[in-house]
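Consider the following assembly input.
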Amino acid sequence: MNHAPVLVVLLPLLAALTSLLLPYRLAPWLFSGCLAGVGGLLIPLYQRLIATGVFRYRIGGWGWPLGIDFYLDGTGFIMLAMTWALLAGIGWYSLAYFRGRPAAAHFWPLLLLVWAALDNLFLTADVFNMYVTLELLGLLSVALIALAGTSDAFSAALRYLLAALGGSMCYLLGVAMIYSASGTLDWVFLRTVLTEGPRAAMALALVTAGLMLKSAIFPLHFWLPRAHANAPAPVSALLSSLMVKASFYIALRMWLWIFPGVLHTHVAGPLLGLLGAGAILYGSLLALRQDRLKLLIAYSTVAQLGYLFVFFALSMHPEDVTPALQAVVFFALSHAFAKAALFMGAGVVQRTLGHDSLDRLAGCAQRLPQIVFSFGVAGVSLIGLPPSGGFVGKYLLIDTAIRERQWFWAGVLAVGGLLAGAYVFKILARAMADGLSPTFAPHLASITAPSHVLPDGAPKAAGDTFPAPATVATGPTAPTEGPTTSFTPPTTSAPDPGISRHPTPAPPAAAISAAMTAVPAEAAPPDRGLVWSTWTLAMTAFLLGLLALHPLQMIAIGAPETGPRLPGSEILK
Amino acid sequence: MNWYKWLPVLMIASSAGPAIAIFFLAEESHGWRTLWNMLGAVLKIVLMGVLFYEVHLGREIAFHVPLMPGLTFKLHADSLSLLFAGLSTVLWFLTTIYAIGYLEHSPHRSRFFGFFSLCVSTTIGIAMAGNLITLLIFYEFLSLTTWPLVVHRGNPTSIAAGNRYLVYTLGGGALLLLGVVWLQTLVGEIDFVARGGLSALEAGTHNDLRLIFTMLVLGFGVKAALVPLHGWLPGAMVAPAPVSALLHAVAVVKAGAFGIVRVVYDIFGIEFCERLGVLEPLAGLAALTILFGSWRALTQDDLKRRLAYSTVSQVSYIVLGAAVFGPKATIGGIVHLVHQGLMKITLFFCAGNFAEELGLHRVSELDGVGRRMPWTMAAFTVGALGMIGVPPVAGFVSKWYLGWGALEAGMPWVIAVLALSSLLNAGYFLPILYAGWFAERTSPWPATHGAPFPGTSIHFPPDSPANMGGPSATETCANPPAKLPREPLMPPTRGKHRASHEAGAPTAIVFGSEGSPSVPGGLSPASTSTAAWEISPLLLAPPLVTAGLSLLAGIFAGSSFSPLYWARFIMMGEY
């Protein structure tokens, strides 16, 4: 298993290429094979990391400075594991989502390529190689967004393409300057080779600007909400959970591993933090104002990315670097699970109700209990309440802020949590509002035995539970027990025959309008795979906080020893 | 490996396990749900007994799991946690019985009982938390598990109440989190130890500590409904009666009060608090809350809202006990944790029964109810007299010790507060008792069951308020009518009108039209109801038991099984 690092990249890459040659029905099988294979390869990587700490892998035996090396530390491994786990969840979901749809032919190869690119990114020690994977991820994302096939999606994809190209171009310029200043591209060595000066400063500025554009940090977030909200649900989940983390990961490497020894980054750190704070407040407030579920979740991503950048303001003291790094990587990890679950849940809502308008979610809690539950527990992680992963990340960030006596940041983090609470519970309150038809609520048990809740089963169930209302009620009744008619949203304002199921003498207008907003009962319950994959990811995010100890210890492996260079502190060479 | 160190975990699991099982049950599996509920409730009582026994044997019961670097998840059983956990366990058992009877035919029972059981698990977790971070985790979790119960009805009123509840609790939680993190950065991990562990800190940190104390108390004060953080509580009364009874009278508000008690005694230490000079402001706040709550209760016509304001006032007795420096006041405050729980849950059970059986929601409707439902009214009387502080009911014991403690501490103004509060208590409880026992009924009951138990179908007299959309009920509850009549969703076999009544929605189960064979509720209910119980035994037994317990706790206060004895035992450790 000495070649495990490169196999982790090669396996999905080869599978992607193979899947183009085989009938597309086989692609999910290839994907599953990859999951097993990469999962198996992560184990020896993990063992080696625990046993010997960080290590390098020379691709083809060339080694630095001729070849490209892979380098694995705890942060990298957590990112690899996160990619694996999320792709497992998203793949499970996509299996049901794309079943029998033509888009599946393109989706699986693209997904496998994304995987290969992400693994490469998290492993490589070469900043130019990072550029290549970054560019690749950008192009793949454009293709994935366009899979939705709507004109909104096309325009969002095009916007994204332009932003991504601009971002990578900036990054490439920065890398070029780094190379001209130092003669090497290996980020592990750059720290010792690069010298202080305007070129290094310029390079850092360019690289950071490019990465900020790509990770949609306020005020460069303009492309994100539309791109994430218009893509197909699994793609939204992928983009919001993993893709934005890729560029953040590079920023982390730059700011923590390369430049601290070179520049007085303590000046710029708080600036990035301020942008992060802006993102938290602005993103949350905009999320609150959305009336579409997917847009709300997308703006929540804008806000949550802010936390990642607040980190740069908090890692100012050498002794705080490791705790802050643990906090931010763990935060990114739990955000990935929570956000993927939210987007996947939104996909189920959209599939089932035919829309994702927040105002018409009434009755959702009865119709899609597991999905609303998933919204709840994933939302808890976004708010940062215990025992979720978000809580641990936020706790550690606040801990760092208070230890450094940076009250402003502690306040920003707390307020951010409250705003997240506001938009998460906005979704939940809408979904908990009563629809018309608890009878048709597919309860958790019913989902596992779908025959009870399928439309044709509904009349039976209703008849079993309720005595025919006409026999009890003395109000004017038209004995229409068939729920398929009862709960069809009336298209006109004329009293629907179904309303007379209620023994109300004259159905008030409110009842009719509520019936119109209620969930149409005839819609089939969502596929089990969609529901349970969402639920699993949400529960993972929720319970991650209880399993935090070991991942946090992992992240500390290979964490940089020193923080950003402070005036007067000696330069570590 | 000592098996008994798992007892706190088992205590939590004994209701969390059934909760998860119940979530997965279909709505119709009534039998299974009841089985799981009762299984969990009985198991928890048994475990509680074992736990008391083990602690009695002097065993150190603590369970640790590392949570984060430098932080431990710790559950333990000290005497204070046993007091609160014991209270929650016994009352959960009774409330489960009550809830099974109460929610027999309302929708979403699986969701309800699932979250209900989770809430109890969380409360036990709060009781058993061995350090501040564990307490914080369970405390925040309690906000999350109670929210679905507050919005359970799903109508605009309950959603609005739920939003209000969230604003308060999330805000309080954020403040608490900041305080906890700050304190941990000063002293590292904070275990609960008797007499606190902070007094060794140098004087330079004392200002920080005062600020932290304030943050922690305000964070916990949200749930304890300290004025001006009490705004969520009266609104949260839209929840079903068992929720009001257990959670908003016992678990949630007690969690806040318990948190404050922990902060004062086991984190800072009462003597250190006294040195910091933070006790007087806390006592002032508690006194203000006591008077304000009682004052507001006077003017409420809605029975549940009156009881809610009474809760606001009574819970602050516990805080007052913690804030007055002296062993007697400590005993009074801690024992009130139990006494208030027993008495208030009795009152809420009874209020639920009045609403359930006769559709009575307002104090002004209660005339003559004592003759129609004597047992329920008797239980209510015991609870109310206890709240006023009439011996021999338990409330007297609390007030006695609080007053004694205040004298001991040289704070005679507390006596005045207690006296004034008792006067106000009498002012809002005695009219209810008078109306219930002595007033003549002149109008028909707003709604009554044709055959109370087991009923078949209900009919409202055409002219009853319920039939007219219940404008009176809706206005006084300050609850706008729900948009939808919900009742058609419920099987009308033994149709219950409480759902809409509590939410203030117009009732619309069966409208007695002219000439329908409806049984007039009115003045002659005896013809149909005296034959059976005045209400289902499932609903009658819990208030009778809790009323009996409040009496026993008062009469046998001197015995070694009483809450008072236990509170005295706790006090010994703190001074």
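Strands of chain B lie at 62-68, 71-76. Ask yourself how this observation constrains the way the partners meet.
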